[in-house]
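Practice problem: predict the structure.
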Amino acid sequence: MHQNHVAHRDILTNNIMMDGDDLFPEGWNHRYPELTPDGEKRAKAFTRTQKPPKYYFIDFGLSRQYDPSETNPLEPPIFGGDKTVPEFQTNKETSNPFHTDIYYIGNMIREYIIEGIELEFKGHYGMDFLNPLINDMVQNDPAKRPTMDEVVKRFEEICKEHSSWKLRSRPAPRRRENIFKAIPHQLGHWKRRIGYIVCRVHHIPFRQPSQ
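Answer:
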């Protein structure tokens, strides 16, 4: 998106959708996703490690495409769903919307995947290896944030630095798990993990190029 000079300007979880067709080849029931569309039987399903899905940005109501010659476009503050953008808190001056997009994605990962949100979502243990990258993405000075190309490159380097053992590990929720739920989750994780190793499913999911 950024390579096409488009700034989204309202990135949050509600504006990212997943295509589940590869995960549920027979379809799924929108009320009970574990069942087939007719609700008669359990739906055949794959994990996102087995069948990496596509994700899509939606809701381009605040988005804007810029001329490639505009190397540093500036816009006045425009509040989307995430109200925590640092450059919007202290002044009403113009700022680069691409820098703000970087903050939006970093903050979303920080809140929903790593640290969690109090009383809403507790995040996960085992994801701290992402902190150096995420901290750079959400720093207060927009000009010091990496570009999206730099984010992608650094993420790939981080994955290469860690063993398959680490990258296959279960990201346990930070909230205290009920022991009667935690044990089945752990057993299920190890069953899948061993199965992936035996079947040589790569520890970093990647999509096959489109034909």
